[in-house]
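Protocol step 4 of 6: structure prediction from sequence.
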Amino acid sequence: MAEKRVGSVVEQDKTGKGKQAENKGHCATCHHPEPKGHGTMAVPPAYSDLGKSAKDIFCKGYGFGALKLDIKTKSQSGVEFATSGSSNTDTGKSGGHLETKYKLTDLGISFNQKWNSDNTLTTELTMEDQLAKGLKLGLDASFVPNTGKKSAKLKTGYKRDYINVGCDLAFDMDGPTVHAAAVLGYEGWLAGYQLAFDTAKSKLTQNNFALGYKAGDFQLHTNVNDGTEFGGSIYQKVNSNLETAVHLAWTAGSNNTRFGIGAKYQLDKDASLSAKVNNACLVGVGYTQTLRPGAKLTLSALIDGKNVNGGGHKVGMGFERRTDKKCEKKAMQDMNAEPSCDTTKMQ
């Protein structure tokens, strides 16, 4: 009898554990919302990136009055090369730059060198996430051989949940200048402040404030620069193919208000169409086509709506070529892919 009781208790214990496991598995797979907790907040963007989604609608996909060529490649050793050249169709002036970048991933160090057609040499050394998680340290130095002008900048940045701060110390012939910015984020709300202080003149040369809100596919951004420049923008992703944006800006003591509306429509996975118009009746149109993985062509035009027949319009063209293992692999996959056949559409 004692053995039967012990066996019954053990069996009940196993059954209880089994039910607990079943209940645990059921809770893990059920569709009930999890109880709200503290969770983690995404790191807010840097001050310069506030309102970036709306800025991209008005800036990317256009190149009025210029012919531009961008080429990027990466060697097997991990060295990245980038070269860019452009020519202004109005003045005929041309310019370009050559850039090399190398990363030591294990040490969190990146080394960047750049030379442009103005004969300016720039070197940048950056270390990230080594001394502390989220901490970024950098040193920039530039030199102009023709004039002998030299400058340097010490850069620091720290970003974690709810906060993104940065402080740069720029050195030149006139004396050091302090640039600092901070952005706080909480439940979609963003607040930022930016300043620049000239130590040689003991003067605050920049005093900017920004406030924004981000919720899913909607973004709102407002800013005040030096207490005289006011601006705002709204970004809305209507669906997976259409993005829209509106921006507004004005200056205190002036009746000149600047207003613009822009949109970007993804025609298919390889082509997109952009358009924008402002209160001066300047209409911009851009078309971007991915010719193959890593190769992109951009055509754009700016039309003066107030003087359509009088000329003064501008056109532009840009070509971007990027070659690395990912692009070459994607190109080979596209070349070797067999066309799909949907029998339901052939009847």
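Step 5 (inspection) to follow. The two ends are 75 Å apart (CA to CA).
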